Amino acid sequence: MKYPDIGLEYRKIVWVVNTTRAMGLVSPLVGLLTAAGQWLAVYSTYTWGVEPHVLDPVLTKALGRWTFLTYQSNIILTIYFTVSFINSIVSFDLVDCLLVSMFPLVFALGVFLTTAYYALDHFNPLQQKRREHFAKNGYPMIWVDAHLEHCMALPLIIIFITYTELENIGDMRPEFGWTMFSVGGYSFYYLLQVHYVFFVSGLWVYPIIAEISSKGGIQGRNIFFAGLMCVFLVLGTIGSVVM
After folding, report:
1. For the chain, what is the largest distance between any 2 Cα atoms, rounded to a whole number of angstroms?
2. At what angle do helices 93-116 and 153-162 cross, to 10 degrees?
3. How distant is the alpha carbon of residue 24 from its chain centre?
4. Kind and range of the H or E element at 235?
5. 3-state SS class at 164
6. pTM of the model
7. What CA–CA distance (Å, rounded) separates 1 from 11?
8. Which of 163, 133, 151 is nearest to 38 (CA)?
9. According to DSSP H, which parts of 117-206 are helical?
10. Residue 220: which of 229, 210, 231 has the closest Cα?
11. Left, alpha or beta for 37 (phi > 0: left; psi -120 to 50: alpha)?
12. Nearest to residue 83, comparing CAs of 102, 111, 70, 69?
């Protein structure tokens, strides 16, 4: 019988259902550590971060915090690590199968979140001036929040990979087709959202998009988006290999 290349293949589900030994991908301690780290990032967002209507009321009027990839990434990682922690205790193999299948997307989002922020945003003079403005106008913890929202993801991903119980993965490793589908699908969705936000607000979510558009027009912008999607697909592929 030939199985489909995309999704949780039939043979994988059968393997999970027939497995008699139930154990999580990581120990409860590692599950707790990774989940707590991500919950700290979300807590920081709501406690010390600048509210969307204050940060940019025009840009965020349609989707609020969901406008930003940072927020979406942190929510996805928080759900992922929380489910992983719970499953390290109750141990359902079908949940492990889902966690393994979604890891390429989680890896891509987590690695990109931390590296892109410190490479492109944190040391940018304009962004530093912006944070200084908010620090003096009601948000004194914004510098802490900026780090917590972005610095947690990559270290937690590394910890999760390092202490994954590889013998419990078995035949559940995601195939290339599923990795392209899940990571590419989410990347395409977010690019659609970026265009939707521009349609309703007249603003691009990130200044680099506006800069590229002004210099390279639609063609330059599309090349940038294609390159960005390729980066996510490469990261997703790496994630499927290192798991």
Report:
1. 65
2. 140
3. 22
4. helix 207-242
5. coil
6. 0.88
7. 10
8. 151
9. 125-135, 142-151, 153-162, 176-201
10. 210
11. alpha
12. 102
Task: Give pLDDT tens digits along the chain (243 positions).
Answer: 444 455 444 344 433 433 434 468 999 999 999 999 999 999 999 999 999 999 999 999 999 999 999 999 999 999 999 999 999 999 888 899 999 999 999 999 999 999 999 999 999 999 999 999 999 999 999 999 999 999 999 999 999 999 998 766 766 778 899 999 999 999 999 999 999 999 999 999 999 999 999 999 999 999 999 999 999 999 999 999 987
Give the whole-angstrom CA distance, residue 81 versus residue 239.
15
* For the chain, the helix, strand and coil percentages under 3-state DSSP, each to the nearest 5: 75, 0, 25
d(CA 28, CA 128): 39
Helices 69-90/153-162 angle, 10° precision: 30
Q: What are the angstrom distances between the C-alpha of 116 and each of 47, 58, 69, 151?
A: 23, 24, 11, 11
How many Å apart are CA 60 and CA 21, to the nearest integer?
47
